[in-house]
Amino acid sequence: KLNVAGWHATAALAFAAFLLRLLARLVRGEQDFWLNGYSAYYTLALRLVGGHGLCFGDGRAATCAWWPPLYPTLLAGAALTPHPYLTIVIAESLCGAFTVVCAILLATHLFDRATGLLAGFLAAIYPYFIIHDTALQETSTYTCLTAAAVLLLFAAAQTRTWKLSILAGGTMGLALLTRASLLPFVPLSLVWLLCFSGGPARSRLRSTLLAGVAFSIVVAPWLIRNTVKLGAPILTSQSGRFLWIGNNRATF
Questions:
Q1: pTM score above 0.85
Q2: 108 in Cβ contact with 100 (< 8 Å)
Q3: In whole angstroms, what is the distance from residue 201 CA to residue 81 CA?
Q4: How confident is the model at residue 169 (pLDDT cuts 50, 70, 90)?
Q5: CA-CA distance, 172 to 26, in Å (whole number)?
């Protein structure tokens, strides 16, 4: 639904979002980046680079699936570059900019061009995003992948192209391997694609199967690894801890 002017405005908003995030992080400085983030993510990344795998310490099985693997693995790649700090903040700024593009396309698809550009503008200048998109945490990666997965699901439902169905399922898998809390929404997404996305039943079934298979292929290696290492096909060993944090006398 975007015309040429709309695409130009989208590019401008994405570029502005990238600059805002990058400049905000550079102003705060490198020391703030390492001290006011989840530094354990980078510790895990360095252990991966050092050949110790995605485990904290030795001999403690529960800490070998403390977090899903995608974000620490990406940090490990950055750790191999000459300037890890700049590599991470530039990459995360790009993730934030792409999230703005996804917001524009999603809102345009659901409503109209004006709403899409307004959504993109708000996502670009949202202070929480500007600060947290370049923090040492998985927020920007997770948000970017989730928004992309939703956009691809809508595109797959509209066009019934097998490539888009595979991309939608694969992207959902990557988002889940970034933050495990997405899990309850995955079956709901597949049910929507099968039952409520419109079009012939055969096409909906094919799209759902392709998305489900792609999702499974992406997630399966992590589950198999944890089954071998921990004895259970879990996404994270923190599920019980999260349940306790949200349900105890000292909550908040």
A1: yes
A2: no
A3: 49
A4: very high
A5: 31
